[in-house]
Amino acid sequence: MGVPADLDDLARCRLLSAEGMARAREDLGLPATQRDGDVDVASYVGARFGAEVVDRLVDPLLAGVYAGRSEDLSFEATLPGLAEESRRHPSLAEAAGALMPPPTPGAIRAAAGATVFTTLTGGLGVLPAAVAAASGAEVRTGAMARELARTPGGWRLTVGSAHAPESLDADAVVLAVPAPPAARLLDGLPGAADARAALAEIAYASMAIVTLAYPASCFPRPLEGSGYLVPAVDGHPVKAVTFSSVKWPHLRSADPAMAVVRCSLGRVGEERLLQRDDADLASLAAADLAAATGVRGEPADVRVTRWGGALPQYTVGHLSRVERIRAGVGREPGLAVCGAAYDGIGIPACIATARAAASQVLRYLRESRPADVTGGRG
Predict the structure, then answer these.
(1) pLDDT tens-digit profile of 149-194?
(2) Sorting pLDDT into bands at 50, 70 and 90, what band is 370?
(3) Within this chain, do residues 281 and 152 fall inside the same structural domain, yes or no?
(4) Which among 37, 142, 183, 282 could bridge 199 via Cys, Cβ 3.0 to 4.6 Å?
(5) Are 42 and 86 part of one and the same domain?
(6) Does residue 79 lie in a domain region?
(7) CB 86 within 8 Å of CB 96
């Protein structure tokens, strides 16, 4: 998340001013920074490296992942590996270095042609349909879950519109929804009162993606790398740009003459920016992209995708919040939660929480009704 492990490499990148670089080097000689419990990322990293490292390296990455700000986000929750290593090293650069994989023969040569990104052929959007088809389950979309209640045999979900509700009985339930609807569904379950209160404490940020397609010849030189991040202190509406047709080979092979880029807009506190209409957002993104890359002319195609309230904010105290949620939900047998609100917002983290939730309810079913699990109802 932008915390430097090699300060000489950082100096060669020239991302910091001379003063900022000198301040960052102080980390190596400073005594260990003590912390009593969780702290925000900006204060801890800033105490070690100075504000410029936070503004130009750490904050842009956190804005890209969480649409959040480093002065609000939890050090323990957003940088757990580094937080753990920082207890073993007085220098934060040394702690970051301890997380780096050891060099292997040929690694430098291989790195030139390697990529740290991967996806599915056809894009990640093909995954949900493939998983649904392989599961053999009945998947219902557009059916809002309005209420969750205990029954003598398990659970009852009320789904559908308020005018035409439908009841569904279930042996067990996994709530794979954001924190606010999860809190609402727990209303009325006495054992989950503390979990409901903790869920209500998790705030969410909104963002928008503006996808722009240009003839590749409009760029003064071929796009290289996966894209770039924009520090909030620079005052641009676009916080990150992905060179999609470079990053994802299936886009490049679909039309080699076109270059596709994705511009990300929206951080916590920038709601007014996201209230602009699609045409205005697209114009802002195109202007920012032109200033940064020199692209000429109008895009051949534009797409604006909005993600309202999509990104949970792992603010200070997030880990204890999650403990309270899981403890409260655990008091309701046959109920579990999973998703981006808990242990990470990336796809691997969400999959891990889903597996844990599935294991939790399956264990409950095996212990409470083994004949049902092994003999037919599932």
Answers:
(1) 999 989 999 999 889 899 999 999 999 999 999 999 999 898 899 9
(2) low
(3) no
(4) 183
(5) yes
(6) yes
(7) no
Q: In whole angstroms, give the CA distance from residue 237 to residue 230.
A: 9
Torsion sign across C-alpha atoms 294, 297, 301, 303:
positive
CA–CA separation, 148 vs 157, rounded Å?
A: 5
* pTM higher than the cut 0.85: yes
Cα-only R_g, the chain: 24
Q: Give the DSSP letter of residue 171.
A: S
Distance CA 125, CA 119 (A): 10
* Any domain includes 304: yes
Q: At what angle do helices 193-200 and 318-330 cross, to 10 degrees?
A: 150
143 in the same domain as 174: yes
211 lies in the same domain as 171:
no
pLDDT at 90 over 80: yes
Same domain, 84 and 208: no
Distances (CA, A) of 313 to 62, 264, 342: 10, 17, 10
In angstroms, the CA 271 to CA 309 distance is 10
* Domain ranges, residue 77: 7-98
Mean pLDDT over 339-357 rounds to: 95
Q: List C-alpha distances in Å: 267 to 86, 106, 229, 235.
A: 28, 40, 13, 12
Distance CA 205, CA 183 (A): 17
DSSP 102: P
How many Cβ atoms are within 10 Å of 155's Cβ, its own excluded? 17
d(CA 246, CA 259) in angstroms, rounded, equals 8
CA distance 265 to 274: 8
